[in-house]
Amino acid sequence: MSGTVQLQSLSKDRRREIFRAACQVLDETGIIIGSAGACDVLDGAGAMVGKSRVHIPRPLVERALEAAPRCFTLYSHTDESKNVAIKPNRIYYGPSITATHFIDPQSGERRLFYRDDAVSVARVCNGLDHIDYVAAQGTISDVHPDLVELYEFVTLLAHSAKPVMAWSNTVEGCRDIHRIAVRIAGGEDELEQRPRYFFLGCSISPLTIPGEVADQLVTCARQAVPYVFGPCPMCGATTPSTLASTLVVATAEWLAALVLAQTVRPGTPFVAGGSLGTMDMRHTTMPYGAPELSLLCATETAIAHDLGLPAWSTAGVSDAKMVDQQAAMEGAMGVVVAALSGADLIHNVGFIEGCLTGSLHYLVMMDEAIGYAKRVLRGIEVTAETLALDWIGRVGPGGNFLNTEHTLRHFRSEFWYPDLFDRRTREAWGEAGRQQMADRVQARLGGLLSGPSAPLLGPEVRQDVDAILAAAERRVAA
Length: 478
Fold this sequence. Notes:
Elements: H1 12-29, E1 32-33, H2 36-45, E2 48-49, E3 54-55, H3 58-67, E4 72-74, E5 84-86, E6 92-93, E7 101-103, E8 110-112, H4 115-127, H5 148-159, E9 164-166, H6 171-185, H7 188-193, E10 197-201, E11 208-209, H8 211-222, E12 227-229, E13 234-235, H9 243-264, E14 270-273, E15 277-278, H10 291-306, E16 311-314, H11 325-341, E17 345-347, E18 351-352, E19 357-358, H12 360-378, H13 384-387, H14 389-395, H15 405-414, H16 426-431, H17 437-450, H18 459-477
Parallel strand pairs: 1-11, 6-17, 7-19, 9-10, 10-12, 12-14, 13-15, 14-16, 16-17
Antiparallel strand pairs: 2-3, 4-5, 7-8, 18-19
Protein backbone atom coordinates (compact mmCIF):
# COMPACT_ATOMS: atom_id res chain seq x y z
CA MET A 1 0.00 0.00 0.00
CA SER A 2 1.35 3.41 -0.91
CA GLY A 3 0.46 5.59 2.05
CA THR A 4 -0.73 9.18 2.14
CA VAL A 5 -0.23 9.51 5.88
CA GLN A 6 -0.91 13.10 6.93
CA LEU A 7 -1.79 13.02 10.62
CA GLN A 8 0.87 14.78 12.67
CA SER A 9 -0.05 15.83 16.18
CA LEU A 10 3.39 17.21 17.05
CA SER A 11 6.23 18.67 15.02
CA LYS A 12 9.36 16.59 14.62
CA ASP A 13 11.23 18.99 16.93
CA ARG A 14 8.66 18.47 19.68
CA ARG A 15 8.78 14.70 19.20
CA ARG A 16 12.55 14.83 19.48
CA GLU A 17 12.12 16.76 22.72
CA ILE A 18 10.00 13.93 24.12
CA PHE A 19 12.67 11.42 23.10
CA ARG A 20 15.36 13.44 24.84
CA ALA A 21 13.20 13.68 27.95
CA ALA A 22 12.66 9.91 27.94
CA CYS A 23 16.40 9.35 27.69
CA GLN A 24 16.91 11.74 30.59
CA VAL A 25 14.40 9.77 32.68
CA LEU A 26 16.19 6.49 31.95
CA ASP A 27 19.55 8.00 32.83
CA GLU A 28 18.62 10.05 35.90
CA THR A 29 15.46 8.50 37.38
CA GLY A 30 16.04 4.97 36.15
CA ILE A 31 13.65 2.07 35.75
CA ILE A 32 12.81 -1.01 37.80
CA ILE A 33 13.60 -4.28 36.02
CA GLY A 34 12.50 -7.23 38.12
CA SER A 35 14.82 -9.86 36.68
CA ALA A 36 18.32 -10.45 38.04
CA GLY A 37 19.33 -12.07 34.76
CA ALA A 38 18.14 -9.11 32.70
CA CYS A 39 19.90 -6.72 35.07
CA ASP A 40 23.12 -8.69 34.63
CA VAL A 41 22.79 -8.35 30.85
CA LEU A 42 22.37 -4.59 31.13
CA ASP A 43 25.13 -4.28 33.70
CA GLY A 44 27.52 -5.98 31.32
CA ALA A 45 26.53 -3.55 28.57
CA GLY A 46 27.30 -0.45 30.60
CA ALA A 47 24.06 0.37 32.41
CA MET A 48 24.27 1.36 36.07
CA VAL A 49 22.46 -1.33 38.06
CA GLY A 50 21.59 -0.36 41.63
CA LYS A 51 19.68 -2.15 44.35
CA SER A 52 16.27 -1.06 43.14
CA ARG A 53 16.71 0.64 39.76
CA VAL A 54 18.61 0.38 36.50
CA HIS A 55 19.97 3.60 35.01
CA ILE A 56 20.47 3.46 31.25
CA PRO A 57 22.73 6.11 29.69
CA ARG A 58 21.77 7.56 26.34
CA PRO A 59 24.69 5.97 24.41
CA LEU A 60 23.14 2.53 25.14
CA VAL A 61 19.84 3.78 23.77
CA GLU A 62 21.49 5.13 20.62
CA ARG A 63 23.36 1.85 20.10
CA ALA A 64 20.15 -0.14 20.45
CA LEU A 65 18.36 2.09 17.95
CA GLU A 66 21.14 1.54 15.43
CA ALA A 67 20.89 -2.25 15.84
CA ALA A 68 17.11 -2.64 15.62
CA PRO A 69 15.62 -3.31 12.15
CA ARG A 70 12.89 -1.15 10.67
CA CYS A 71 11.60 -3.98 8.46
CA PHE A 72 10.87 -7.67 8.94
CA THR A 73 8.25 -10.19 7.85
CA LEU A 74 5.83 -12.40 9.74
CA TYR A 75 5.03 -15.52 7.75
CA SER A 76 1.96 -17.67 7.35
CA HIS A 77 2.58 -21.36 7.98
CA THR A 78 0.35 -22.35 5.05
CA ASP A 79 -0.43 -19.41 2.73
CA GLU A 80 2.17 -16.93 1.44
CA SER A 81 -0.56 -14.42 0.56
CA LYS A 82 -1.20 -13.99 4.28
CA ASN A 83 2.36 -12.93 5.15
CA VAL A 84 2.70 -9.64 7.04
CA ALA A 85 5.59 -7.49 5.74
CA ILE A 86 6.46 -4.84 8.32
CA LYS A 87 7.87 -1.84 6.46
CA PRO A 88 7.06 1.83 5.87
CA ASN A 89 3.62 2.67 4.47
CA ARG A 90 2.11 -0.70 5.37
CA ILE A 91 -0.51 -1.02 8.10
CA TYR A 92 -1.86 -4.23 9.59
CA TYR A 93 -4.78 -4.76 11.93
CA GLY A 94 -5.69 -7.56 14.31
CA PRO A 95 -7.47 -8.42 17.56
CA SER A 96 -5.83 -8.79 20.95
CA ILE A 97 -5.78 -10.93 24.08
CA THR A 98 -6.81 -11.35 27.72
CA ALA A 99 -10.41 -10.09 27.64
CA THR A 100 -12.22 -11.89 30.44
CA HIS A 101 -15.59 -12.16 28.67
CA PHE A 102 -17.00 -12.82 25.23
CA ILE A 103 -20.21 -12.07 23.35
CA ASP A 104 -21.73 -15.38 22.29
CA PRO A 105 -21.90 -15.33 18.45
CA GLN A 106 -25.34 -16.96 18.41
CA SER A 107 -27.20 -15.72 21.49
CA GLY A 108 -25.50 -12.35 21.85
CA GLU A 109 -25.13 -12.95 25.59
CA ARG A 110 -22.01 -11.92 27.50
CA ARG A 111 -20.25 -14.91 29.06
CA LEU A 112 -16.84 -16.41 29.81
CA PHE A 113 -14.46 -17.26 26.96
CA TYR A 114 -13.91 -20.96 26.21
CA ARG A 115 -11.40 -22.95 24.19
CA ASP A 116 -13.95 -23.54 21.42
CA ASP A 117 -14.36 -19.77 21.16
CA ALA A 118 -10.71 -19.50 20.18
CA VAL A 119 -11.53 -21.78 17.24
CA SER A 120 -14.31 -19.40 16.19
CA VAL A 121 -12.04 -16.37 16.52
CA ALA A 122 -9.36 -18.03 14.39
CA ARG A 123 -11.83 -18.96 11.67
CA VAL A 124 -13.39 -15.49 11.55
CA CYS A 125 -10.00 -13.76 11.49
CA ASN A 126 -8.90 -16.10 8.72
CA GLY A 127 -11.91 -15.13 6.61
CA LEU A 128 -11.87 -11.35 7.08
CA ASP A 129 -9.98 -9.49 4.35
CA HIS A 130 -8.64 -6.68 6.53
CA ILE A 131 -7.68 -8.60 9.66
CA ASP A 132 -4.03 -9.42 9.07
CA TYR A 133 -2.96 -11.41 12.10
CA VAL A 134 -4.80 -13.44 14.71
CA ALA A 135 -5.07 -13.32 18.51
CA ALA A 136 -7.49 -15.10 20.81
CA GLN A 137 -9.76 -12.13 21.67
CA GLY A 138 -10.31 -13.63 25.11
CA THR A 139 -8.84 -15.63 27.99
CA ILE A 140 -9.75 -19.31 27.85
CA SER A 141 -11.54 -20.22 31.07
CA ASP A 142 -11.85 -24.01 30.70
CA VAL A 143 -8.15 -24.98 30.83
CA HIS A 144 -5.56 -24.70 33.60
CA PRO A 145 -4.93 -20.96 34.27
CA ASP A 146 -1.18 -21.39 33.73
CA LEU A 147 -1.74 -22.92 30.29
CA VAL A 148 -4.27 -20.48 28.84
CA GLU A 149 -1.84 -18.82 26.44
CA LEU A 150 -0.42 -22.18 25.29
CA TYR A 151 -3.81 -23.57 24.29
CA GLU A 152 -4.69 -20.27 22.63
CA PHE A 153 -1.53 -20.40 20.54
CA VAL A 154 -2.09 -23.98 19.37
CA THR A 155 -5.75 -23.38 18.59
CA LEU A 156 -5.03 -20.26 16.54
CA LEU A 157 -2.32 -22.00 14.49
CA ALA A 158 -4.58 -24.98 13.90
CA HIS A 159 -7.46 -22.91 12.53
CA SER A 160 -5.94 -19.81 10.91
CA ALA A 161 -3.23 -19.37 8.29
CA LYS A 162 -2.42 -15.85 9.47
CA PRO A 163 0.52 -14.97 11.75
CA VAL A 164 -0.22 -15.21 15.46
CA MET A 165 0.23 -12.79 18.33
CA ALA A 166 1.49 -14.77 21.32
CA TRP A 167 1.80 -13.93 25.01
CA SER A 168 2.44 -15.65 28.30
CA ASN A 169 2.36 -15.02 32.03
CA THR A 170 5.38 -17.24 32.57
CA VAL A 171 8.79 -17.90 31.05
CA GLU A 172 7.92 -21.62 30.83
CA GLY A 173 4.88 -20.75 28.72
CA CYS A 174 7.00 -18.53 26.49
CA ARG A 175 9.43 -21.40 25.91
CA ASP A 176 6.64 -23.91 25.24
CA ILE A 177 5.13 -21.57 22.65
CA HIS A 178 8.48 -21.38 20.93
CA ARG A 179 8.87 -25.18 20.96
CA ILE A 180 5.51 -25.52 19.25
CA ALA A 181 6.40 -22.86 16.67
CA VAL A 182 9.73 -24.60 15.97
CA ARG A 183 7.97 -27.92 15.38
CA ILE A 184 5.46 -26.37 13.01
CA ALA A 185 8.19 -24.48 11.14
CA GLY A 186 10.36 -27.59 10.81
CA GLY A 187 13.31 -26.44 12.91
CA GLU A 188 14.99 -23.55 14.75
CA ASP A 189 16.73 -22.19 11.65
CA GLU A 190 13.56 -22.35 9.59
CA LEU A 191 11.61 -20.45 12.24
CA GLU A 192 14.31 -17.82 12.64
CA GLN A 193 14.33 -17.21 8.89
CA ARG A 194 10.53 -17.23 8.62
CA PRO A 195 8.94 -16.31 11.98
CA ARG A 196 5.30 -17.40 12.29
CA TYR A 197 4.47 -15.39 15.37
CA PHE A 198 5.37 -12.33 17.38
CA PHE A 199 5.38 -12.02 21.15
CA LEU A 200 3.71 -9.28 23.19
CA GLY A 201 5.03 -7.92 26.49
CA CYS A 202 3.97 -4.97 28.60
CA SER A 203 5.52 -2.79 31.27
CA ILE A 204 3.76 -1.59 34.40
CA SER A 205 3.68 2.16 34.46
CA PRO A 206 5.36 4.08 35.83
CA LEU A 207 8.79 2.76 34.84
CA THR A 208 8.61 -0.91 35.81
CA ILE A 209 9.33 -4.00 33.72
CA PRO A 210 8.21 -7.06 35.72
CA GLY A 211 10.64 -9.94 36.05
CA GLU A 212 8.51 -12.33 34.00
CA VAL A 213 8.29 -9.84 31.14
CA ALA A 214 12.02 -9.11 31.21
CA ASP A 215 12.85 -12.83 31.20
CA GLN A 216 10.44 -13.46 28.31
CA LEU A 217 12.02 -10.61 26.39
CA VAL A 218 15.48 -12.11 26.91
CA THR A 219 14.20 -15.54 25.86
CA CYS A 220 12.58 -14.18 22.69
CA ALA A 221 15.63 -12.08 21.77
CA ARG A 222 17.92 -15.09 22.04
CA GLN A 223 15.68 -16.89 19.53
CA ALA A 224 15.25 -13.79 17.28
CA VAL A 225 11.48 -13.87 17.88
CA PRO A 226 9.88 -10.54 16.85
CA TYR A 227 8.87 -8.72 20.01
CA VAL A 228 6.19 -6.08 20.55
CA PHE A 229 6.54 -4.00 23.70
CA GLY A 230 3.36 -2.15 24.58
CA PRO A 231 3.24 0.11 27.65
CA CYS A 232 -0.26 0.93 28.89
CA PRO A 233 0.12 4.10 30.98
CA MET A 234 -2.94 5.89 32.30
CA CYS A 235 -2.55 9.66 32.16
CA GLY A 236 -3.53 11.11 35.54
CA ALA A 237 -3.05 7.83 37.40
CA THR A 238 0.13 5.96 36.46
CA THR A 239 1.62 9.02 34.74
CA PRO A 240 1.19 12.75 35.40
CA SER A 241 -2.03 14.28 34.11
CA THR A 242 -0.55 15.74 30.91
CA LEU A 243 -0.31 14.02 27.57
CA ALA A 244 3.31 15.07 27.04
CA SER A 245 4.46 13.47 30.30
CA THR A 246 2.61 10.27 29.45
CA LEU A 247 4.51 10.12 26.17
CA VAL A 248 7.78 10.56 28.06
CA VAL A 249 7.07 7.72 30.49
CA ALA A 250 5.82 5.31 27.81
CA THR A 251 8.77 6.08 25.53
CA ALA A 252 11.22 5.54 28.38
CA GLU A 253 9.64 2.16 29.13
CA TRP A 254 9.86 0.79 25.60
CA LEU A 255 13.32 2.27 25.09
CA ALA A 256 14.50 0.29 28.11
CA ALA A 257 13.00 -2.88 26.65
CA LEU A 258 14.62 -2.11 23.31
CA VAL A 259 18.03 -1.76 24.94
CA LEU A 260 17.60 -5.11 26.68
CA ALA A 261 16.52 -6.88 23.47
CA GLN A 262 19.31 -5.44 21.33
CA THR A 263 21.92 -6.11 24.02
CA VAL A 264 20.92 -9.77 24.12
CA ARG A 265 20.86 -10.07 20.34
CA PRO A 266 21.48 -7.10 18.06
CA GLY A 267 19.02 -7.07 15.20
CA THR A 268 16.11 -8.60 17.12
CA PRO A 269 12.89 -7.37 15.46
CA PHE A 270 11.28 -4.96 17.92
CA VAL A 271 8.02 -3.01 17.65
CA ALA A 272 7.48 -0.01 19.94
CA GLY A 273 4.31 1.71 21.03
CA GLY A 274 1.44 0.72 23.27
CA SER A 275 -2.02 1.70 24.45
CA LEU A 276 -1.55 5.14 25.94
CA GLY A 277 -4.69 6.40 27.63
CA THR A 278 -6.17 8.66 30.26
CA MET A 279 -8.14 8.11 33.45
CA ASP A 280 -11.75 9.22 33.32
CA MET A 281 -11.88 10.91 36.72
CA ARG A 282 -15.65 10.47 36.92
CA HIS A 283 -15.56 6.70 36.63
CA THR A 284 -11.90 5.76 37.37
CA THR A 285 -11.69 3.87 34.07
CA MET A 286 -9.31 4.06 31.11
CA PRO A 287 -11.59 4.95 28.16
CA TYR A 288 -10.43 3.24 24.98
CA GLY A 289 -12.78 5.28 22.83
CA ALA A 290 -11.34 8.57 24.06
CA PRO A 291 -9.79 10.97 21.53
CA GLU A 292 -6.76 11.33 23.81
CA LEU A 293 -5.93 7.63 23.38
CA SER A 294 -5.93 7.96 19.60
CA LEU A 295 -3.88 11.17 19.84
CA LEU A 296 -1.30 9.63 22.20
CA CYS A 297 -0.96 6.45 20.15
CA ALA A 298 -0.58 8.42 16.92
CA THR A 299 2.16 10.55 18.48
CA GLU A 300 3.95 7.52 19.89
CA THR A 301 3.83 6.01 16.41
CA ALA A 302 5.54 9.11 14.99
CA ILE A 303 8.21 8.99 17.70
CA ALA A 304 8.95 5.34 16.94
CA HIS A 305 9.16 6.04 13.22
CA ASP A 306 11.45 9.03 13.81
CA LEU A 307 13.80 6.62 15.58
CA GLY A 308 13.68 4.03 12.80
CA LEU A 309 11.39 1.53 14.54
CA PRO A 310 8.07 -0.03 13.54
CA ALA A 311 5.15 1.07 15.71
CA TRP A 312 2.39 -0.66 17.68
CA SER A 313 -0.97 1.06 18.16
CA THR A 314 -4.57 0.61 19.25
CA ALA A 315 -7.87 0.99 17.38
CA GLY A 316 -11.20 -0.67 16.63
CA VAL A 317 -12.11 -0.78 20.32
CA SER A 318 -14.95 0.80 22.28
CA ASP A 319 -16.12 1.47 25.81
CA ALA A 320 -19.68 0.54 24.82
CA LYS A 321 -21.18 -2.47 26.59
CA MET A 322 -22.71 -3.81 23.40
CA VAL A 323 -22.16 -3.42 19.66
CA ASP A 324 -24.27 -0.30 19.25
CA GLN A 325 -23.98 3.18 17.76
CA GLN A 326 -21.36 4.21 20.32
CA ALA A 327 -19.23 1.18 19.46
CA ALA A 328 -19.51 1.93 15.74
CA MET A 329 -18.51 5.58 16.16
CA GLU A 330 -15.62 5.04 18.58
CA GLY A 331 -14.23 2.07 16.70
CA ALA A 332 -14.40 3.63 13.25
CA MET A 333 -12.84 6.91 14.33
CA GLY A 334 -10.02 5.07 16.06
CA VAL A 335 -9.39 2.90 13.01
CA VAL A 336 -9.07 5.92 10.73
CA VAL A 337 -6.79 7.87 13.09
CA ALA A 338 -4.52 4.84 13.55
CA ALA A 339 -4.36 4.38 9.79
CA LEU A 340 -3.51 8.02 9.17
CA SER A 341 -0.78 7.84 11.81
CA GLY A 342 0.92 5.10 9.79
CA ALA A 343 1.19 2.58 12.64
CA ASP A 344 2.59 -0.76 11.49
CA LEU A 345 0.63 -3.13 13.76
CA ILE A 346 -2.72 -2.02 15.17
CA HIS A 347 -4.35 -4.23 17.80
CA ASN A 348 -7.46 -4.51 20.01
CA VAL A 349 -9.82 -4.68 17.03
CA GLY A 350 -13.11 -6.23 18.18
CA PHE A 351 -13.02 -5.34 21.88
CA ILE A 352 -15.88 -3.61 23.67
CA GLU A 353 -16.31 -2.62 27.32
CA GLY A 354 -12.84 -1.08 27.37
CA CYS A 355 -11.08 -4.33 26.36
CA LEU A 356 -12.90 -6.47 28.94
CA THR A 357 -15.12 -8.22 26.38
CA GLY A 358 -14.40 -9.64 22.94
CA SER A 359 -17.03 -9.61 20.21
CA LEU A 360 -16.88 -11.29 16.81
CA HIS A 361 -19.78 -9.12 15.71
CA TYR A 362 -17.67 -6.06 16.42
CA LEU A 363 -14.64 -7.60 14.73
CA VAL A 364 -16.70 -8.11 11.56
CA MET A 365 -18.01 -4.55 11.74
CA MET A 366 -14.54 -3.08 12.24
CA ASP A 367 -13.20 -5.08 9.29
CA GLU A 368 -15.47 -2.91 7.15
CA ALA A 369 -14.14 0.26 8.80
CA ILE A 370 -10.57 -0.89 8.17
CA GLY A 371 -11.36 -1.38 4.48
CA TYR A 372 -12.62 2.21 4.38
CA ALA A 373 -9.47 3.47 6.12
CA LYS A 374 -7.16 1.57 3.81
CA ARG A 375 -8.85 3.14 0.80
CA VAL A 376 -8.28 6.60 2.27
CA LEU A 377 -4.61 5.74 2.76
CA ARG A 378 -4.27 4.64 -0.84
CA GLY A 379 -4.86 8.23 -1.81
CA ILE A 380 -5.19 9.61 -5.34
CA GLU A 381 -2.89 8.55 -8.15
CA VAL A 382 -2.05 11.33 -10.61
CA THR A 383 -0.75 10.15 -14.00
CA ALA A 384 -1.56 10.84 -17.62
CA GLU A 385 -3.88 7.84 -17.52
CA THR A 386 -5.75 8.96 -14.40
CA LEU A 387 -5.98 12.61 -15.49
CA ALA A 388 -7.79 11.26 -18.58
CA LEU A 389 -7.51 14.47 -20.61
CA ASP A 390 -8.04 12.58 -23.86
CA TRP A 391 -11.31 11.11 -22.58
CA ILE A 392 -12.49 14.44 -21.23
CA GLY A 393 -11.84 15.86 -24.70
CA ARG A 394 -13.63 13.01 -26.50
CA VAL A 395 -16.78 13.17 -24.39
CA GLY A 396 -16.80 16.94 -24.11
CA PRO A 397 -19.26 19.24 -22.34
CA GLY A 398 -22.68 17.79 -21.54
CA GLY A 399 -21.72 14.14 -22.10
CA ASN A 400 -21.22 11.29 -19.64
CA PHE A 401 -18.50 8.73 -19.05
CA LEU A 402 -20.54 5.75 -17.94
CA ASN A 403 -19.94 3.63 -21.03
CA THR A 404 -16.42 4.70 -21.87
CA GLU A 405 -13.53 2.25 -22.01
CA HIS A 406 -11.68 4.39 -19.47
CA THR A 407 -14.45 3.93 -16.89
CA LEU A 408 -14.51 0.18 -17.52
CA ARG A 409 -10.77 0.02 -16.96
CA HIS A 410 -10.76 1.85 -13.65
CA PHE A 411 -14.00 1.71 -11.70
CA ARG A 412 -13.25 -1.61 -9.97
CA SER A 413 -9.83 -0.55 -8.72
CA GLU A 414 -10.48 3.17 -8.16
CA PHE A 415 -13.60 2.81 -6.01
CA TRP A 416 -14.02 1.05 -2.67
CA TYR A 417 -17.03 -1.28 -2.45
CA PRO A 418 -18.29 -2.14 1.03
CA ASP A 419 -19.63 -5.49 2.13
CA LEU A 420 -21.80 -4.26 5.01
CA PHE A 421 -22.65 -0.60 4.37
CA ASP A 422 -25.92 -0.30 2.44
CA ARG A 423 -25.86 2.03 -0.58
CA ARG A 424 -29.07 0.93 -2.30
CA THR A 425 -32.09 3.10 -2.86
CA ARG A 426 -34.68 3.01 -0.08
CA GLU A 427 -37.01 1.05 -2.35
CA ALA A 428 -34.40 -1.61 -3.10
CA TRP A 429 -33.46 -1.79 0.59
CA GLY A 430 -37.09 -2.30 1.55
CA GLU A 431 -37.65 -4.99 -1.06
CA ALA A 432 -34.57 -6.85 0.26
CA GLY A 433 -36.01 -7.07 3.77
CA ARG A 434 -35.13 -3.73 5.42
CA GLN A 435 -32.05 -5.17 7.09
CA GLN A 436 -30.09 -2.95 9.47
CA MET A 437 -26.34 -3.08 10.06
CA ALA A 438 -26.73 -5.54 12.94
CA ASP A 439 -28.60 -7.94 10.66
CA ARG A 440 -25.92 -7.74 7.98
CA VAL A 441 -23.13 -8.26 10.53
CA GLN A 442 -24.90 -11.32 11.94
CA ALA A 443 -25.33 -12.78 8.46
CA ARG A 444 -21.66 -12.21 7.60
CA LEU A 445 -20.51 -13.71 10.88
CA GLY A 446 -22.76 -16.73 10.42
CA GLY A 447 -21.29 -17.34 6.99
CA LEU A 448 -17.72 -17.18 8.30
CA LEU A 449 -18.48 -19.60 11.13
CA SER A 450 -20.45 -22.10 9.07
CA GLY A 451 -18.04 -22.40 6.15
CA PRO A 452 -15.74 -25.39 5.64
CA SER A 453 -12.62 -25.58 7.80
CA ALA A 454 -9.74 -27.88 6.92
CA PRO A 455 -7.19 -28.73 9.64
CA LEU A 456 -4.00 -26.72 9.14
CA LEU A 457 -1.69 -28.97 11.18
CA GLY A 458 -0.83 -32.40 9.82
CA PRO A 459 -1.26 -35.50 12.01
CA GLU A 460 2.45 -35.91 12.76
CA VAL A 461 2.86 -32.25 13.69
CA ARG A 462 -0.30 -32.38 15.78
CA GLN A 463 0.99 -35.43 17.63
CA ASP A 464 4.22 -33.65 18.54
CA VAL A 465 2.35 -30.50 19.56
CA ASP A 466 0.03 -32.57 21.78
CA ALA A 467 3.11 -34.08 23.43
CA ILE A 468 4.33 -30.56 24.31
CA LEU A 469 0.90 -29.73 25.73
CA ALA A 470 0.87 -32.95 27.76
CA ALA A 471 4.30 -32.16 29.23
CA ALA A 472 3.07 -28.69 30.17
CA GLU A 473 -0.01 -30.21 31.83
CA ARG A 474 2.25 -32.47 33.90
CA ARG A 475 4.41 -29.51 34.89
CA VAL A 476 1.55 -27.41 36.23
CA ALA A 477 0.02 -30.42 37.99
CA ALA A 478 3.25 -31.24 39.86
